[in-house]
Amino acid sequence: MDKLIPTNASELVKALSQQVPSHQIVRQLLLSLLALSSRSDAQLVWLAKLCGMQPSAVLVNPSILLQCSAKQLLTLVDHPEFCDAQQLNEFATQLSIENWQSDESDAVKRSQVKSACVLNDSRLLLASVWDPFLCPAALLPWLAWSVSVDEWDEAWSEALKRQVINDAFAVHQVKGTPYALQKALDSLNIKTEIKEWWQGNNLEALPRGTVQVWALINSNLDEQQQGMLTPQMLKRVRRIIEAVKRGSIHVDVQLGLSYSEQLGAVCALPPTIVQRMDAPTGNGVKPNEAMQKTRHLEPLKAEASNI
């Protein structure tokens, strides 16, 4: 296994390479999704695009798809046309996925299968630790820290954590712009409407150097549709805005509740002025120290084979 590790690999990658063996069963299961002998030309073109290969080359020689890496093949799990319910159950059986329920939603089952594939193949795991949508859930706090996520909450759903990490780079690219404010809040399922003081016909509506931000909460409400439109949520929105806005502006924040399929914005808290603060230090989120002693990858269930 050590021969597969590059000389400049991080300590995390080296540690994982020592603990996680390779499982050829994962690659065999993923290759079975290709079913090349029964594919039409249109399906072969689709497979080529999903796996990042030239469609023209695949049409001439479909067998070159067998050379794809496990990470390339993993994208097929997301598509029912190539991975149906029966094949999902086969993955669950072969990889001994815990808490597998046949009546679970299709999206959840596909997510479970992809996570199991990553955890049961060392090469795939090493290729996935920097991918926000494939990185094992136990390692997400470290990935968030490494990409300088400014706001983090362990109570968030796994899907929300992955989306915030995925958007971090785009936010840092445009920090200080209205788009950065919108992108950072969009990651938390908070829809925004942003207006700078010079926009519109009435220039006296806002003081000079002020940006008005409507933050409309929607899909991050809890099951009782309550508890999120709170002072704590307003403080969180403030922190996010302070982390990404440019230092020369004041921000007028108005927090509201949005029902996209009903009445639009139906209520709002009184506007609150966010005072100018020092520029953020850039330290971002850091994993809890106690977590470093307790977090670990789930033990592998599939039978290992040597590389």
The residue ranges in which pLDDT falls below 50 over 5 or more consecutive positions are 220-227, 260-284, 293-307
Quote the beta fraction: 5-15%
Overall number of structural domains: 2
The value of Rg in angstroms is 23 Å
Mean pLDDT: 78
- Termini separation comes to 7 Å
**SSE topology string:** HHHHHHHHHHHEEHEEEH
Number of helices: 13
Largest β sheet strand count, sense and barrel closure = 5 strands, mixed
Number of strands: 5
Broad shape: elongated
Oligomer: single chain
Fold and architecture overview:
It is a single chain. A hairpin with a 4-residue loop joins strand 3 and strand 4. The protein contains 13 helices and 5 strands. It has helices spanning 11-19, 24-32, 41-50, 55-60, 70-74, 85-94, 106-119, 122-128, 140-146, 158-173, 178-186, 231-244, 289-294, and strands at 190-196, 210-217, 250-259, 264-268, 272-274. The longest helix is centred in the middle third of the chain and has 16 residues, at 158-173. The protein folds into 2 domains: 2-129, no CATH class; 174-274, 2-Layer Sandwich (GMP Synthetase, Chain A, domain 3). With 307 residues, the protein is of the alpha+beta class. Mean pLDDT is 78; it is low at 220-227, 260-284 and 293-307. The N and C termini lie close together (7 Å). Strands 1, 2, 3, 4 and 5 form a 5-stranded mixed β-sheet that branches. It is elongated, with a radius of gyration of 23 Å. This is Tail protein I. Pfam families: Tail_P2_I. It comes from Pseudoalteromonas luteoviolacea.
